[in-house]
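Reopening this one. Same input as before:
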Amino acid sequence: MAKTKQTKLKPENRRHYFFLNSYNDAAFTKCPKCEAKTMVRKLPLVIHIEPQQLFILNKKCRYCASCDLIITHKSEVEDLMAACFEEINPEIIGNKYLVIGTLEKHDWRSRGRILKDSRDTIERMYVFKDLWDFKPISFGWYSTKK
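Same output, byte for byte:
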């Protein structure tokens, strides 16, 4: 029986914290954690869509350099994924997904959006350090992390 090579993520392959913003009325021009101004950055996000589909979405996101936090709108991610898969794979639209990390720009440019070799992508990607969630309160935001 042949052994299959298993991909192991190194600790140095973890980068950034991530918040998938489900609040359409919150743009996060200030970080919900430290209240520093956020910047707009275009980042290649690695998304796992069930069943077994990796997708790279190069998208403008909010970024807090102080907290190393990437924030993006859930509705924008879903709309862009639906538009991309409408022609090539419409049955995948609406499936569960998880934004799992980022790629370097040069890796994204050389591979395109839909990757053929997922093992190579997993080896090159940076997995998020942690996924954060924030809930609105009357005078600001609070983290749901303990």
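So the earlier flakiness isn't reproducible anymore. For the record, Residues 13-24+36-143 form one domain.
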